[in-house]
Design brief:
Largest interface: A-B, 11 and 21 residues
Oligomer: heterodimer
Strand content of chain B: 25-35%
CATH superfamily of chain A: Phosphoribosylformylglycinamidine synthase subunit PurS
CATH class of chain B: Alpha Beta
Number of strands of chain B: 11
Distance between the termini of chain A: 6 Å
Number of domains of chain A: 1
Shape of chain B: globular
Low-confidence stretches of chain A: none
Helix content of chain B: 10-25%
Helix content of chain A: 25-40%
Strand order of the largest sheet of chain A: 2-1-3
Mean pLDDT of chain B: 97
Number of domains of chain B: 1
Strand order of the largest sheet of chain B: 2-1-3-4-11-10-9-6-7
Largest sheet of chain B: 9 strands, mixed
CATH class of chain A: Alpha Beta
CATH architecture of chain A: 2-Layer Sandwich
Radius of gyration of chain A: 16 Å
Number of strands of chain A: 3
Low-confidence stretches of chain B: none
Chain lengths: 76, 222
């Protein structure tokens, strides 16, 4: 079983890296980008029996800093 | 007075901090991150600068989960003193000993230079050797020093006079020009600049020395 954790900066938190990517795209002539947000994608290869609640606890404790980041867990 | 300096894999200012503590008169002990307890009778814990765990995941995030940080949290809770410098400030924010977070510099560049600062409050054991609103110059060297906190936290920091240092000419986008903050009991200081790198004229400056001298006098045994 696999869990995919997506960690993004919260809305309203300035994302300097996203801004830099946006301006680089503009410099390449891609004028159709109104905004860029950059985050992290973390794949967890789960041992049998690991629950979604445990993955959420991992996010709260380590994988995301909830002061500035939000996260989303998908289990497949 | 007894001080401890934590050592994580990737710490690189630990020895500088120990030299500064010893020069000020502290009986100083190096403490490895896998230790589960601080040595007996420690008054002050230094969390040094560097790149603990290679800054993997987020700066300070892995170090914050190390065994010694549990002991440091307990030390802070019972009123012990903690000084977190640069990566140490990031670690203290990640452990929630201090509020807020340190994000990538707004200009995206690693900033390494001498930086003018204003001492925002002299009301702490760390800053009592300075005058309030005194300007000093300390080195900064960081990629992630952009202090961010929610509006309620910023309001509390201002209202409780817990902003210790502000930048004169903001180098990294930090909210309210914040370079360092104090805990509610004023016994934990986290700051991005490096006072331990300017304690002796041979280092090119001495503006950090008053912090260490004040600490030798101002500590209350917790």
């Amino acid at each position: 079983m696999k869990a995919t954790v997506t960690v993004m900066l919260k809305q309203g938190v300035l994302d300097p890296q996203g801004e830099a990517v946006k301006s680089a795209l503009g410099a390449l002539g891609f004028s159709g980008v109104a905004g860029v947000r950059q985050g992290k994608l973390i794949e967890l290869d789960l041992a049998p029996g690991t629950t979604e609640a445990e993955v959420t606890a991992m996010c709260e404790k380590l994988l995301a800093n909830t002061v500035i980041e939000s996260y989303r867990v998908e289990i497949a | 007075m007894r001080a401890a300096v934590l050592v994580f894999p990737g710490s690189n200012c630990d020895r500088d901090l120990a030299v500064a503590f010893r020069a000020a008169g502290f009986d100083t002990h190096m403490v490895w991150h896998k230790d589960t307890a601080l040595p007996e009778g420690i008054d002050l814990v230094g969390v040094p600068g560097g790149f603990s765990y290679g800054d993997y995941l987020r700066c300070g995030a892995i170090a914050a989960q190390s065994p010694i940080m549990r002991a440091v949290g307990q030390h802070a809770e019972r009123g012990g003193y903690v000084l977190g410098i640069c990566n140490g400030f990031q670690v203290l924010c990640e452990t929630r000993v201090l509020p807020g977070a340190l994000m990538r510099n707004a200009g995206l560049k690693f900033v390494c230079k001498m930086q003018r600062l204003s001492v925002t409050t002299a009301d702490s054991a760390f800053t009592s050797g300075y005058e309030a609103r005194q300007e000093i110059t300390l080195p900064i060297a960081h990629h992630d020093g952009n202090y961010v906190a929610d509006p309620a936290t910023l309001q509390a920091l201002r209202a409780e006079d817990r902003i210790a240092f502000t930048y004169v000419g903001n180098p990294n986008g930090a909210m309210d020009d914040i370079a360092g903050i104090l805990s509610p009991n004023r016994r934990v200081l986290g700051l991005m600049p490096h006072p331990e790198r300017v304690v002796d004229a041979a280092q090119g400056g001495t503006d950090g020395a008053p912090m260490f001298h004040a600490l030798t006098k101002g500590l209350v045994v917790a």
